[in-house]
């Protein structure tokens, strides 16, 4: 299954990684990326069904439950939409609704 990232997803992941660089160890940041890969692999193999955020958008917690990943799934593609640090204002997600 193909995995694609929106521009918003790329920008939000970079923003979170830069923020966490000063607060987390390098191992914790690597674990975040490892958990991201695991979630996407689970979705691509239909191993896990993640919580729905809205009708077509799913969410998953990664990074010691500090970061939410938002994505959609269709028959041949996972589209990563956005990443949100759980300490950020959830109003940033209004564009997903």
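^ structure tokens above, recovered residues below v
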């Amino acid at each position: 299954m193909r995995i694609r990232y929106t521009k918003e997803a790329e920008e939000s992941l970079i923003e979170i990684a830069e923020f966490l660089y000063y607060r987390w160890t390098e191992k914790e940041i690597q674990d975040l990326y490892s958990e991201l890969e695991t979630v996407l692999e689970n979705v691509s193999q239909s191993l896990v069904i993640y919580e729905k955020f809205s009708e077509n958008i799913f969410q998953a917690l990664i990074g010691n439950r500090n970061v939410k990943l938002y994505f959609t799934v269709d028959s041949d593609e996972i589209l990563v939409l956005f990443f949100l640090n759980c300490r950020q204002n959830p109003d940033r997600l209004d564009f997903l609704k």
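The beta strands are 2-5, 51-52, 58-62, 67-73, 77-85.
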